[in-house]
Specification:
about 30% strand; three-stranded mixed β-sheet
């Protein structure tokens, strides 16, 4: 699914010489349709195999072209959605990859981010880098997104936050440890001063 909410479908027609997996074909279909960034991807196997994880090659291509894509994978307690970076621990990051970054917000922050009222956020266990990004408001009924920029990323610790902020962050990240290292992110929306 792309940032506009369009779903791009593809298949892998197996041949003894191999060939592209359905995930790579879906990337081509999305590109041909003019999709900017992809938010999520999932693959299902035929003959009742259900949800299947992407192969290593697909994971690397997804990381290089869509570094913030969420990938549906089978897990012990049923389907799970994970950032592609979590599927490729200690991977090689191609320095010339041109994948545009996605920075996700809960839809409740839409108005505050768009107006420029909210310009900072605290994140845990997310890969955030300064530079241009598409800000996506998750679960927004209109698939709201806007172009912006991550201005700076600094470090802080959970124990250094005031009690109210720490409680709110723990509610958002239930598995976050008490000694968590956090990222303090400053950002701006393009066209908002």
């Amino acid at each position: 699914m792309d940032v506009d909410g369009r779903i791009h479908q593809a298949v892998n027609v197996y041949h003894f010489t191999g060939g592209p997996c359905a995930e790579l074909v879906a990337l081509g279909v999305a590109a041909a349709a003019g999709a900017k960034q992809l938010l999520t991807i999932a693959a299902a196997g035929d003959r009742g195999r259900g949800l299947i994880p992407p192969c290593g090659r697909c994971r690397q291509v997804l990381l290089e072209h869509h570094p913030d894509i969420l990938v549906a994978v089978p897990a012990e307690k049923g389907p799970a959605v994970r950032p592609v970076r979590k599927l490729l621990l200690d991977t090689y990051f191609y320095p010339d990859a041109q994948g545009r970054r996605i920075f996700r917000f809960n839809k409740r922050y839409h108005d505050a981010v768009i107006s420029g009222e909210k310009t900072t956020t605290i994140r845990w266990d997310e890969s955030v880098e300064a530079g241009p990004a598409t800000f996506v408001f998750e679960d927004h009924p209109e698939f709201a997104h806007v172009e912006g920029e991550i201005i700076s990323v600094g470090q802080t610790r959970l124990q250094d936050l005031d009690a109210e902020r720490a409680r709110g962050l723990k509610a958002h990240y239930p598995s976050m440890p008490d000694d968590a290292e956090l990222s303090r992110v400053s950002f701006r929306v393009h066209g908002v001063r």
